[in-house]
């Protein structure tokens, strides 16, 4: 993830549930699948890493 995305994730209360629409996915399942394929972890796993 880029540093701007990391900063936004860390400083906001946005959850992946609200992000999938913002980035152009019609279905959350598609977003989660693509996210995990690209980053190797789920959005919540990355969020936990950023917040710790």
TrEMBL record:
GO molecular function: DNA-binding transcription factor activity; sequence-specific DNA binding
Coiled coil: none
Keyword Transferase: no
Keywords: Transcription, Transcription regulation
Pfam families: HTH_AraC
InterPro entries associated with the record: Homeodomain-like_sf (IPR009057), HTH_AraC (IPR018060)
Sequence ranges assigned to domain HTH araC/xylS-type in this UniProt record: 1-49
Name recorded for this polypeptide: AraC family transcriptional regulator
Native source species: Bosea caraganae
Classification of source organism: Bacteria, Pseudomonadati, Pseudomonadota, Alphaproteobacteria, Hyphomicrobiales
């Amino acid at each position: 993830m880029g540093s701007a995305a990391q900063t936004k994730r860390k400083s906001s209360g946005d959850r992946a549930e609200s992000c999938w629409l913002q980035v152009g996915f019609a279905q959350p399942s598609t977003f989660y699948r693509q996210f995990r394929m690209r980053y190797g972890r789920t959005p919540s796993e990355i969020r936990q890493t950023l917040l710790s």
